[in-house]
Amino acid sequence: YHMQVSRQDVLDVTMCPSQHEMPHFSKFSFTPRNILLKESPCFVLKMMQDLGFIDTFRIKQDILVRFILYVRKGYRDVPYHNWSHAFSVAHFAYLALKNFELVEKGYFTQLEALAYFISCLCHDIDHRGTTNSFQQQSNSVLASLYSSEGSVMERHHLSQTICTLNTEGCNFLESLSKDDYVKCLDLIKDMILATDLASHYKIHSRQLTLAQEGYDKTQPEHRYYLASLLMTCADLSDQTKDWAETKKVAQLIYAEFFAQGDLEKKMGKTPANMMDREKASIPDHQLEFLTQCCICIFRILATIFPHAKVLVDAIKQNILCWESSKRIFEKFKLEGKTSYEVLVSEE
Ligand SMILES: Cc1nc2ccc(C(=O)N[C@]34C[C@H]5C[C@H](C[C@H](C5)C3)C4)cc2n2c(-c3ccccc3Cl)nnc12
Ligand SMILES: [Mg+2]
Ligand SMILES: [Zn+2]
Questions:
Q1: 197 CB under 6 A from ligand 1?
Q2: What's the 151 CA to ligand 3 centre distance in angstroms?
Q3: Which residues contact 180 (CB under 8 A, 6 or more apart)?
Q4: pTM score, two decimals?
Q5: pLDDT tens, position by position, 266-314
Q6: Contacts of 81 (CB under 8 A, 6+ apart)
Q7: ipTM of this predicted structure
Q8: For 247-253, what is the mean pLDDT?
Q9: CA-CA distance, 286 to 250, in Å (whole number)?
Q10: How distant is the alpha carbon of residue 279 from its chain centre?
Q11: From the CA of 275, how far away is ligand 1's center (Å)?
């Protein structure tokens, strides 16, 4: 099917504030979710210009604009896994490339940097707001397509990315050499598949060892694990922002989780506690996620890039905020409120 991109859409991409009007745009403290959504395609273009991709790969602007607009249309209107998430994940890739000087210091080639940024932008295309296990449970079409290989949703996001590139007038990578083109798609595959959090759990200890032994840029295995780590960090980058942002994002994530739980109950299935609005204890679950998963990932990042220490500190701050908000949740729980009702009630 053919999604049209109007002339107005293409004009939208030309108007947004310039970088020097937003000096902190390239700081880790910047919150990309506060960018006006109609200006976001323009910011994607500006980030790619600023990263030197347009010149290095002789990318045609009108083809890139059409690609960005098709990617945006590829995201659904679900609470969390929507275009706003994709844009914020791509913004973190921009921050990592600039603040860690990934290309300048030889961690990434320019091609790997391009693949990283594009993978972040496309990593959740056509997400339905439900998990991989829900695909299996509900015998979805996607499960029938991909469940034998695992990472069902991630394989779908990858396939949607390739389809978008192959859409008439959208393949901005066509200006790459044949070798670079094949290499870039290979990198995009590894990077999008790396965003399956279950896969991260499998390689976490290997990533930790490599970082402690001393990262070796010349080893392909090290480069693969660094790319995977940077994808997971980008996907979780909301947790490195201030508490107001973190709280807002939690509301979106649990809106999605609980909608899935409601669906599972209708299907006669018992949802996992974190998906059940009656049983979930959001502060406890978030404290577990931040202390057992999130902070560990960013600590590995900080062993390779000392600048990432500010990200670990931001997560520590959010852990303290969840700790202190726990008492408020418990007080309202005694009054019969679910933790979601407390989360969305203005403090
Ligand atoms: C704040 C926050 N909390 C989150 C709490 C929990 C989980 C989560 O999927 N847990 C697991 C826990 C085990 C092993 C695997 C598979 C399943 C069983 C489910 C993962 C994700 C969370 N998450 C994400 C996120 C990142 C990547 C994909 C999807 C999402 Cl939603 N982004 N932000 C957050
Ligand atoms: Mg995903
Ligand atoms: Zn994501």
A1: yes
A2: 13
A3: 57, 111
A4: 0.97
A5: 999 999 999 999 999 999 999 999 999 999 999 999 999 999 999 999 9
A6: 75, 124, 127, 129, 256
A7: 0.99
A8: 97
A9: 8
A10: 27
A11: 11
